[in-house]
Amino acid sequence: MTATAHDRDTAPGITPVHALEEENGHMTTAVGIDIGGTGIKGAIVDAKTGELRTSRIKIPTPAGGEPDAIVATVLDLVSQLGGVDKKTPIGVCFPAAIVNGTTMSAANVSKAWIGLDAEKLFEKSLKRDIKFINDADAAGVAEVRYGAAKGTKGLAILTTLGTGIGTALIHRGNLIPNAELGHLEIDGIDWETRAAFSAKEREELSWADWSERLQKYYERLEAYLYPELFIVGGGVSKHAEKFLPLLRLRTPIVPAVLRNNAGILGAAALASDH
Ligand code: BGC
């Protein structure tokens, strides 16, 4: 599938790169790919500053979210970015718990991902070693390096509200990977199915009704984990003023600074370290 001009977000002031940059034998320019249940996004990133170096390309996730179709879409996206050669580091983030490159779960993609050596699959098609990480964890890494969690001293919890709920635990700047707290059960229900942004859209909930569901969720997280800060990411974070003020929490809660680009930036940053 080819991205149309419409899918290419315009990013003012961003100069496309056609050459790789290297510092101390370390690539500072890397590709970040963020695979979601609805869309696959990618851009070339300056891992030193956390800025996008190209506009972001977004392609809808192939229906059914099957492994081969997703891998083919990622390949297509990378070729559309331009300027990516065989030395360019690539980081890919994915909506599942990932242990040693294997996808352990699949809430919003095909169940064929469960138990799959997905990192190898991407490496085979992209013809290089990649960094492969959970999508919320990538966003958490980006927020701690470049955004809202920078300088936090205790536990910061990043939550992404999108097709599902992704969570990243960052303790004193270090990621504790694969926290799947979006699936916390409240009243016997996997709460992601009630409180993700997709639930608001599906059920046409008002901001006030949706925020009651978020209240139950964040209240539970703060009761169990005593975080210092909640960071709210995902596309809906650009409307943070509509729902964050409705929450009654003892923990400060702020929108992600990097908004919906956090996954791309975190995946690219880790690939550049790799
Ligand atoms: C998945 C997580 C993912 C989150 C956001 C959840 O359904 O289980 O791994 O981080 O969605 O995409």
Write structural notes for this entry.
- The structure is a single chain.
- This protein has 2 domains: 5-135, Nucleotidyltransferase, domain 5; 148-257, ATPase, nucleotide binding domain (Nucleotidyltransferase, domain 5, 2-Layer Sandwich).
- Mean pLDDT is 92; it is low at 1-6 and 8-19.
- It has helices at 67-81, 118-126, 135-146, 192-195, 197-202, 207-225, 240-243, 262-273; strands spanning 22-23, 26-27, 29-35, 39-46, 51-52, 57-60, 90-94, 98-99, 102-103, 131-134, 155-161, 165-171, 174-176, 185-186, 189-190, 229-233, 253-255.
- Helix 1 (67-81) packs parallel to helix 2 (118-126) and helix 3 crosses helix 8 (262-273).
- The protein is globular.
- It has 8 helices and 17 strands.
- The protein is an alpha/beta fold and 274 residues long.
- The strands form 5 sheets. Strands 3, 4, 5, 6, 7 and 10 form a 6-stranded mixed beta sheet that branches.
- The chain binds beta-D-glucopyranose (BGC).
- Beta-D-glucopyranose is lined by residues 36, 95-97, 105, 107-108, 134-136, 160, 162, 164, 166, 180, 182, 192.
